[in-house]
Design brief:
heterodimer; A: 75 residues; mainly alpha; 79% helix; B: 183 residues; alpha+beta; 4-stranded antiparallel β-sheet; 3-stranded antiparallel β-sheet; 10 strands; 27% helix
């Protein structure tokens, strides 16, 4: 038997909208990080590469976590 | 009174009118609009996740590219030309190391030679020396670089040109290395 979600459909919609905004902000941050890293890399500055890659992967992890949470709401 | 289960199943048409006022086609083929909107939003988030993954992949690609560059040994010194072959104010295109993008050698005065990567740091158009003004001009977007330092003076370029370090030995101009810079 299918378990009923703990959130009403309208609430899930609101949560999805909120998550969408957070994901968009994170992606804009990743875009900025990518362009800044490219500029540094082409200029021969290697010090920024590892921190930028780690930060970008953390952002990706956050996005995956948010999508995971969204799917979890439907169970 | 409407139960929770019923309110969950309630379909609200996008035009907001009551079910009785809906056109025939919508009555015949009812769509769960709220659920449809929810799913499209969720799928959009899923698509954005791909964008996020692409940026992260790009960052990792920088690391890999840097690792490969570290593994390759720096180019050996190379004779570019004889000092006497380049007049004051003259310039010469060369490749250092062989097969690499074009570099530009300029003789500023009797004793001073400078050499830079010829590609503009904005969109890689070839820069042209203007020795009288001590500048390098990029004709594509009016970028201007200082000839003595390679630093951008005006226009869209933000980074200096990569500098080729030079030595004068036995009447020859010798390239000894490449120096990328941020400022």
């Amino acid at each position: 038997m299918k378990r009923k979600s703990r959130f009403a459909r309208s609430q899930r919609m609101t949560i999805a909208t909120g998550i969408l905004f957070v994901v968009v902000v994170i992606i804009i941050l990743q875009l900025w990080l990518f362009t800044a890293t490219m500029n540094a890399f082409l200029g021969g500055d290697r010090a920024i590469l590892w921190p930028a890659a780690i930060a970008s992967l953390i952002c990706l992890g956050l996005n995956i976590g948010l999508l995971w949470y969204l799917y979890g709401l439907e169970k | 009174m409407m139960t929770d289960q019923e309110s969950e199943q309630l379909t609200v048409p996008p035009d907001g009118r009551s079910p009785e006022e809906q056109p025939r086609w919508r009555k015949d083929f009812p769509i769960d609009w709220p659920q449809d909107e929810y799913l499209s939003r969720r799928e959009f988030i899923k698509f954005l996740l791909l964008t996020s993954a692409a940026f992260s992949t790009g960052q990792v690609a920088f690391l890999v590219s840097d690792f490969v560059q570290q593994q390759t040994s720096p180019p050996a010194s190379q004779v570019i030309t004889a000092v006497a072959d380049v007049p004051v104010g003259g310039s010469l295109i060369f490749h250092y190391p062989e097969g690499s993008p074009a570099r530009l050698l300029v003789r500023v005065n009797e004793e001073t030679f400078v050499a830079y990567e010829q590609q503009c740091t904005h969109l890689t158009c070839p820069v042209i020396p203007a020795v009288d003004d001590l500048e390098l001009h990029c004709p594509c977007h009016d970028g201007v670089f200082d000839m003595l330092t390679g630093r951008p003076l005006s226009g869209p370029p933000q980074r200096p040109l990569a500098r080729v370090t030079l030595e004068i030995q036995n009447g020859n101009v010798i390239a000894t290395g490449i120096e990328k810079r941020m400022v």
